[in-house]
Structure formats: C-alpha cells, structure tokens
Amino acid sequence: MQPSNRSVDLVRDLYRQGTSYVFAKKPEAIAEEFGFTEVARLASNENPFGPSPQALQEAQKALVSMHRYPDTTHTALISALQEYHGDYSFVTGVGMDGVIETCIRVLINPGDQVTISTPTFSFYGLAATAQGGVNSNVLRNADFSIDIPSFISSARNAKISFLCTPNNPSGTVTPLSDIEEILQNIQGILFLDNAYVEFSSEDYRQLMNRYKNLIIGRTMSKVFGLAGCRVGYAFVPDWFKPMYEKAATPFTLNTISAAAAVGALQDHDYIEQTISYVKKWRDAFTHEKRKPVFTSGANFVMIDVAPLTGDQATDFFAQNGVLVRSCRSFPGLADHYIRVCVGEEWENIRFLEVFRKI
Ligand SMILES: *Cc1c(COP(=O)(O)O)cnc(C)c1O
C-alpha cells in the first residue's frame, strides 16, 4: 500500500463513493418543518401496536444479566422458534439484514455472481458488493411477478440468489409453485426473503423438507414488533448451519433482544391481532381508487403516483403530516411510486384524507 497523507484515502472506494442504504426521512424533522405536533409514520413498515407485553416482560427480566456474555447458541430463542414453527434448523442474526450479510460471507468470493430479483429491497446488492460479489439483477415482469425463465437462467450461474416474497416494495406474492420451479432448476442457494410472509396467505416452510439449497429469511421487526431490537433468523438446511456459525460474528444477538424475541414468539394474541388489523386496513388502502394501488401480501401497499415522482408525492404527504416512503431509490423501478404501510388508526385515516387530495 502506498503511504498517503489523507486518512480517508485508506477507505475502500465502495464506501467513499458508492451508494448506501436509504433510510426513511426523520418524522421529527418533518413535524418541525411543517408545524405538526405528530406525524403519521407510514414509511418503515413497523408494527403500530408497540411492543408485545410479553416481549417487554422477557426483555426486562433479561436486563439483570447484561454484564454476562450471551448464551452463544441462543438455546431459549431456538427452542421458541422450534415451538412456533416446528422442528427446523435455524440461524440468527442482527436483524434479517445480519443474516443476509452472513450468508453472503459464507458463500461469496470476490468475482462470484449473486442474482437478485429486482426491483426489490436494496440490501442484498449492497451486502454482495461489500464482499466483492458481482450482482446480476433480473427484472420482474411489468406486473412485478417473477420472470421465471430469466431468473432461472441467471440463478444457474450464481452461488446465491435473492427473491423477496411478499416483495418489498411492490407487495407481490410469488406462488409456491413458482418457487418450486426455480428450486428444481438451480444448483446454487435460493434465499427467500419472507420478512412480511405472516401478512400473506402463502407459506413456503414445507419446501425446507424437500430442498437442500433453500434458505428462508425471517425477521422479528415486522409482525413481531421488535424493529428496534434487531433480531432476524432463517430456516437453513442442516448442512449450512455449522458453516454459518463459523462465518457469523461471535454471539450474533444480544441477551436483551434475544429474550424479547422469545416473548414475542409466544404472544400469539398480539400476532393475530396485528395480522387481522393490518389486513383490514390494507384492504381499505387497496380499495381507494385515487391512484393505482397494487395488491399486496405485506403490511404496506405500493402506489403508482404518476405523473408525480416518488419524491414529489412524498413531499406532498409530508406537508400534510404523513410520512410515506418514496420508491425512487429502489434500483430497477421507474420513479413514480410510493410505499405506504398500515399504521395506527389515526395515521391511516390521515393518510386516506391526504391521498384523496393528491
Ligand atoms: C424489513 C426487511 C428486512 C429485515 O429487516 P431487519 O430489521 O434487518 O430484520 C429484510 N427484508 C426485507 C424485504 C425487509 O423489508
């Protein structure tokens, strides 16, 4: 390495110049700018009910042992997952983002191909690039369904391929039979991102028993209401688990978050209430005919706001006290969409009022 008189020159080009994850705008800033005491926060797909009381209770109990390192194997969490889902192999991570990052670390050498069904969640591509992977983005069809032959032909050359269902930001649910067709035709790993699957009527878990190249990523951030705790997990084939554990940072999760996750998994009432509430409001959003709203299997909907751009529509909502997500930053998506999630009653009502004025 050449000596340098600028410390920043030590940084990889990727992080000096490259793109990074785009976060939703800060509600506090919008409230201040436009004079609202409270802003409807519909940009980040969080659970509007607050944390489950059982999650809070477990987290509180865990506080007294925060001077100890966590249980390395997260036995209590793995048992809670097995109780909730059945006898599968699980790995954990700091959010599903952490799981995605570690899976890529297990598999990708510089120059290896990673296939991504786009437009979608941006973190797969960012994590792959960080590892030296080469992204192959396969565009979805005009209705955001998967172009199966194109996806398969790219995924055949990839060590790992990412497919999000229900898809962020379009909400599109990919039928189980399509997933199965892909799995039958590729050798590499298919990472199915199921961050929102609880809000849909599709259930892909049975595929774990039939395919040794499937990983299903899940998160505690959405229906389970623990976005701030950063807990993600995945169903993995048995052979993959020890490899993952070698590549992961030691301990993966902190004690408090892991305990909260156990409580959240056991609180079936909270989960069921969230799901039925979200579905009711998602229907209300979808029936609004002001602009085309896409059918969604998630806790959000994507709306075509043309002739406005995503940012113009987002600014209009912000001026009216509603925070929505502009989809401008989603690679492969034309710039005239926004994404809106179901929030508290008053937030949804305010959103619908503003939507009717757009
Ligand atoms: C929210 C989200 C995740 C993961 O979120 P974490 O908070 O990191 O668990 C993963 N994929 C998609 C598509 C998401 O929207």
TrEMBL record:
Pfam families: Aminotran_1_2 (PF00155). It comes from the Archaea. GO terms for molecular function: histidinol-phosphate transaminase activity; pyridoxal phosphate binding. It catalyses: L-histidinol phosphate + 2-oxoglutarate = 3-(imidazol-4-yl)-2-oxopropyl phosphate + L-glutamate. The modification N6-(pyridoxal phosphate)lysine is found at K222. The keyword Amino-acid biosynthesis applies. Belongs to the class-II pyridoxal-phosphate-dependent aminotransferase family. Histidinol-phosphate aminotransferase subfamily. This is Histidinol-phosphate aminotransferase. Its cofactor is pyridoxal 5'-phosphate. Keywords: Amino-acid biosynthesis, Aminotransferase, Histidine biosynthesis, Pyridoxal phosphate, Transferase. HAMAP family: HisC_aminotrans_2. GO terms for biological process: L-histidine biosynthetic process. Residues 38-350 form the Aminotransferase class I/classII large domain. Its EC number is 2.6.1.9. It comes from Methanospirillum purgamenti. The gene is hisC. CDD domains: AAT_like (cd00609). Pathway: Amino-acid biosynthesis; L-histidine biosynthesis; L-histidine from 5-phospho-alpha-D-ribose 1-diphosphate: step 7/9.
